[in-house]
Specification:
Elements (H helix, E strand, L loop, with lengths): L1 E7 L4 H10 L6 E8 L7 H6 L3 E3 L8 H13 L5 E4 L8 H7 L3 E5 L11 H8 L3 E8 L9 E8 L6 H24 L12
Parallel strand pairs: 1-2, 1-4, 2-3, 4-5
Antiparallel strand pairs: 5-6, 6-7
Helix pairs in contact: 1-6
């Protein structure tokens, strides 16, 4: 049984998908803690599902490194098999990534390597593409540049707004994330250590 710590900044829709999947006794993973970098709405899911939560507010620290050190300490006390960034809208310091990778996953609302960064959906619309997508990756020290574990195309429809496209992408992201966790737990997807330059 894999233990997961999920880190969020918002409503936690991907987190909810994992929690719902884990309600099935056969699902081989459980969320053991939920963390956030702010007072995020998704923390309410901890109360709903009886899962401990923690908050490491970025604004409480003098810099990103100090914030990252405290976040890492909070995560590591749960000894998770996987750490999942589920809409955490903050770049992790390199030493946090090094400590957790390759067991550090992220979802991204684009078909990587297309449209990396914080505005993947907006950037896809601005580029006028006919397809975007969703990706699940191993986090490395680049921006959305780590090994791709799963991805799927999502059509851009006439009249799409950033919101409407993102909602359709999120549906795919949730399914891909749950499947990736299942595949890792069942040994069908292997997380490899990345070589350090």
């Amino acid at each position: 049984m894999l233990s997961l710590v999920v880190l969020i900044s918002g409503g936690g829709s991907n987190l909810r998908a994992l929690l719902e999947a884990a309600e099935d006794a056969e699902f081989p993973a459980r969320v053991v803690a939920i963390g956030a970098d702010r007072d995020a709405d998704g923390l309410d899911l901890g109360e709903e599902y009886g899962i401990p939560t923690f908050t490491v507010p970025f604004s409480s620290f003098p810099d990103r490194e100090a914030w990252g050190d405290e976040l890492l300490a909070q995560v590591q006390q749960w000894e998770p098999d996987l750490v999942i960034l589920s809409g955490l809208m903050r770049l992790l310091p390199a030493r946090v990534v090094q400590a957790l990778s390759p067991r550090l996953l992220n979802t991204h609302p684009a078909y990587l390597p297309e449209f990396p960064g914080a505005h993947g959906v907006r950037d896809a619309l601005a580029a006028g593409v006919q397809e975007s997508g969703a990706s699940i990756i191993v986090v490395d020290e680049g921006v959305d540049a780590g090994p791709i574990l799963a991805q799927e195309r999502v059509a851009v429809l006439p009249g799409d707004t950033e919101h409407s496209l993102h909602e359709r992408i999120k549906t795919v992201e949730r399914r891909l994330l749950v499947q990736a966790v299942l595949d890792i737990a069942n040994g069908n997807l292997e997380l490899k250590e990345q070589s350090r330059a």
